[in-house]
Amino acid sequence: MNVPLVLTHFLDRAVRLYGDKEAIIGYEGDRRFTYKQFNYRINQLSRGLQSLGIKKGDKVAYLAPNTIEMLEAFYGIYQVGAIMVPLNIRLTPHDYTFILNHSESKVLFVDQELYHLIEPILPKLETIKAIIVHYKDDQKNAIDYDEWLATFDGSAFPRVDLDENDECSLLYTSGTTGNPKGVLLTHRNNYLHALSSMHFLRVTDQDVYLHVLPMFHVNGWGSPFYYTANGATHVTLRKVAADQIFDAIQKYKVTVIHMAPTVLNTLLQYYDEHKPTISHNVRVVIAGSAPPPAFVKRVEKDLGWEFIQVYGMTESSPLSLGSRILSQYTDLSDEEKSLLKAKAGTPFIGTEVKVVDEYGEEVPHDGETMGEIIVRGHGVMKGYWRNESATMETLKNGWLYTGDVGTIDERGYIDITDRKKDIIISGGENISSIEVEGVLYEHPAVREAAVIAIPHEKWGETPHAIVVLKEGHNITEQELIDFSRSKLAHFKAITSVSFVDELPKTASGKIQKVQLRKQYIDSLEQV
Fold this sequence. Notes:
Layout: H1 8-18, E1 22-26, E2 31-34, H2 35-51, E3 59-63, H3 68-79, E4 83-86, H4 93-103, E5 105-111, H5 115-118, E6 130-134, E7 143-144, H6 145-149, E8 167-172, E9 182-186, H7 187-201, E10 208-211, H8 218-229, E11 233-236, H9 242-252, E12 256-259, H10 261-274, E13 283-286, H11 293-303, E14 306-312, E15 319-323, H12 334-341, E16 346-347, E17 351-356, E18 371-377, E19 383-384, H13 388-394, E20 395-396, E21 399-408, E22 414-419, E23 424-426, E24 429-431, H14 433-440, E25 446-456, E26 460-469, H15 477-487, E27 496-499, H16 513-525
């Protein structure tokens, strides 16, 4: 008899083999639970959901930072056969109205510090039957989570029968143009993704994983599965702050962290100022936009950590590519190794990835010719919830068209050069904003940089840099332009610079170029 690949198996394995081991530590308050205690709370949650009428196929939404309560939701919801809808904590009330109504969510769990985002839209919520607040203060229309949870039994829970092709997650993409799209993932999607990810990341029961990436965000919600399956210890962190990250690493002997390049940059800046000592091995997994190669060298030389670059998207569960030095390339120079590690890398087991031209044909493996990255494998989504046209546009002949542009070299390593919409076309030449940003990060005065296309009478558009300088550093616009010209072909070099105090970012730390382009256009209209 075939055993269905359902995510609750991972919890069962951890409880059976690691029941008395520390499973979760909440950084704030230093709350600690073993896997048996974690399982008890999950069973209480499942019974609580049943008491609210939640059945198989119903949607349960969460609006919370990285907390113990958020982590136990992954399994408590699945035990009753429901579907989890994690919400981005940086959206507007209007966005939450759309997502909660579009998803047809029936129960909403919300953290006290985020309740103010929900309160204005309460009359507009069409399907929500109950709101339960973590760390509740004085909301009259909501239920206190701890008091509510304590009323339910935590003994073994009779789970609903599940098939591996049943849906488990409904995750809404950013929605930079139009309303967010809801990505439907199945138990099979997430289960097989967990197996390939734990293999690539070398996850073991000796790992201590620090939740820096938000659990609502792509690889933030993948991690509860493969670290739990291996009996690793989770450390939850509500706030992404460099001092707290370093403190947690030292205090709990954290061995692995996932984060965006911009968050890594804040750690490097903090290290420069405070020189914290980390005496044990740490793996830092970078997901999101491609990091500058300079980051690789700094992480491995200054921090002494292992740098691992991965690539994925919500629609592929999420990881498809990872970069490490394959055995046949261990004799390369340190410089060449850093360049390889900064690439998105090679496909995970169980995934096929191609770079194709506009006709769907693979581009040459020359590391230069750009094309769209397409993915096929066990992680590819079931489709977009209640959005057939977007599903048909993204899924074609079994392949997921990512909208990301990249190259593939003779070794088979794929490099992300840009999002389709972020490619700069100047005088007919394609320019990767990521490549230009990588050069700017080499300048000692640059703390953060983003490059966007701006209109140009002769060339159509040219690269414009928006830069945050390091404290105590000064540089002129022309000096930075000259620096980029010394490192790049002249058509790729920036032609102008804006200096700002900070760059707009998503909750995971990714720079929001859509907002930067809008701000630039608005500034032109005001002139």
